[in-house]
Design brief:
Blueprint (H helix, E strand, L loop, with lengths): L6 E7 L3 E8 L4 E7 L2 H13 L4 E5 L4 H9 L4 E5 L1 H8 L8 H9 L11 H33 L14 H19 L6 H11 L8 H7 L4 E6 L2 E7 L5 H16 L4 H13 L1 H22 L27 H16 L7
Parallel strand pairs: 1-4, 4-5
Antiparallel strand pairs: 1-2, 2-3, 6-7
C-alpha cells in the first residue's frame, strides 16, 4: 500500500471468539472481544466501521480468517499474513501473537500479504479439493474390501482385472444376496439394517433356536427368583449393543409401515405393557423371525394381510334421463347382483 495507514486493527483469531485491537498513529488503543457467531461478526464489522479502520490484519490460521476476510473486505483493506512470517517478526516464535502486535505491524505496513483468491475461486478450489479427498477415501474403502475378500479366500482380483467393474459387482452381490434379500423381506428392514445385522450376528445356524439367538443378543428379560416366586425385569442387554439398537430402529419402522403382522402384534401389546416395552417385544419377535427365515432359506410373508381381498364393488350405469319405471328396474337389477354369491369366498 502506498498511503500511510492512520488507523489499523489486529485480530487474534480463535475457534469460538476473537480479540480485536485498534491502534492509531497518535497512540490510541482500543481492545474488544467478539464471539465467532453471526451476531458477533456483525458487531465486529460495525465496530471497525465506527472507528474508521483503514486496514485489518490477521493470521492465516486454519480457515478462521475466511469469514473475516469476506465480511470486512468491502469496507477496508484486509491483510492476511502467513503465521510463521508474523511470528518471526515478533522474535517470540514460541509465544502466541496477540492482537496488539498484529495491529502494530499492520499499522507499520510490515505484513507481507498472502495471495487471496476471489470468493468464487476459493469455493471452486474447495470443491476440487473435496473431490480429491473423496477419491482417496474411495480408494481406501476399495483396498479394505480387497483385504476382507482375501482374508475370506474370495480372491476375485486373481480372475478379474477390476472387481468393482460390472462383473465384479454382480459376483459380490451374489455373495450377499442369499441372506441379504431374505432380511429385506421383513417389514422395517432396509439395506443398512440388513447389512448391520449380518455383520453383527454372523451365521445364525450357530444357534439351535431363535430364542437362543435373542438371548445372545440380550433381547430377553432378566429373571429373578426368590423362593418359589419368579419375576422378570428389563432385558439383559448382553451381546452386541449395535445389533440391539438397529433392531429397535427396525421395529419402529415396522410398526409405522402398512398393515403387517408385526404392526398388529405391537398394537396388541402397547395398551398392556406400554409403547416402549412393546417396541422391544417387536424387536425380539423380529430376531426370532429372522432366525427362522435364514435357517430355512425362506422369504418373509405375512400370515393375515396377504389373504385380504378388496370389497366387491357394484357399478350401476344410470342414464341422464330416466323414467320411474326405468329407475325401479335398475334397483331390481342391483338387488339381484348383490345377492349373487362371491365366486372367491362362496
Amino acid at each position: 500500500m502506498t498511503e500511510q495507514i492512520q488507523i489499523a486493527a489486529g485480530l487474534d483469531l480463535h475457534k469460538s471468539f476473537l480479540i480485536a485491537t485498534i491502534l492509531t498513529l497518535t497512540g490510541e488503543k482500543i481492545v474488544d472481544r467478539f464471539n465467532r457467531t453471526q451476531s458477533g461478526l456483525i458487531a465486529l464489522k460495525n465496530w471497525v466501521m465506527a472507528h474508521n479502520v483503514q486496514a485489518v490484519g490477521c493470521e492465516s490460521t486454519s480457515d478462521y480468517w475466511v469469514q473475516i476476510y469476506d465480511l470486512l473486505i468491502p469496507i477496508c483493506d484486509v491483510i492476511v499474513g502467513n503465521a510463521r512470517d508474523m511470528k518471526a517478526l515478533s522474535h517470540k516464535k514460541t509465544d502466541k501473537i496477540d492482537s496488539e502486535f498484529i495491529a502494530l505491524i499492520t499499522l507499520k505496513g510490515m505484513i507481507h500479504p498472502s495471495r487471496i483468491f476471489p470468493r468464487e475461486h476459493r469455493e471452486f478450489r474447495s470443491t476440487i479439493r473435496l473431490r480429491h479427498k473423496l477419491v482417496q477415501k474411495r480408494s481406501s474403502i476399495k483396498n479394505e474390501i480387497h483385504h476382507i475378500l482375501d482374508s475370506e479366500l474370495f480372491r476375485l482380483s486373481s480372475v478379474l482385472s477390476d472387481i468393482f467393474g460390472k462383473s465384479g459387482v454382480l459376483i459380490m452381490r451374489g455373495i450377499l444376496n442369499n441372506e441379504f434379500e431374505i432380511l429385506k423381506s421383513v417389514p422395517g428392514i432396509g439395506d443398512i439394517v440388513a447389512i448391520t445385522l449380518l455383520a453383527e450376528i454372523g451365521d445364525v445356524r450357530d444357534f439351535s433356536t431363535g430364542d437362543k439367538l435373542a438371548s445372545w443378543l440380550g433381547m430377553v428379560p432378566r429373571v429373578y427368583q426368590s423362593a418359589d416366586k419368579l419375576r422378570t425385569g428389563s432385558i439383559t442387554k448382553r451381546g452386541s449393543r449395535v445389533a440391539r439398537w438397529i433392531l429397535v430402529q427396525a421395529a419402529h419402522a415396522a410398526v409405522k409401515a402398512r398393515d403387517n403382522d408385526l404392526k398388529t402384534f405391537y398394537s396388541s401389546k402397547k395398551d398392556i405393557i406400554g409403547a416402549g416395552k412393546a417396541i422391544v417385544s417387536v424387536a425380539r419377535k423380529m430376531i426370532i423371525i429372522i432366525w427362522h427365515l435364514l435357517t430355512n432359506d425362506e422369504i418373509y410373508k405375512d400370515t393375515q394381510y396377504q389373504s385380504m381381498k378388496q370389497a366387491k364393488k357394484v357399478y350401476v350405469k344410470i342414464p341422464k334421463k330416466t323414467s320411474i319405471e326405468e329407475v325401479l328396474q335398475l334397483l331390481r337389477d342391483a338387488a339381484v347382483i348383490l345377492k349373487e354369491p362371491d365366486p372367491e369366498t362362496g
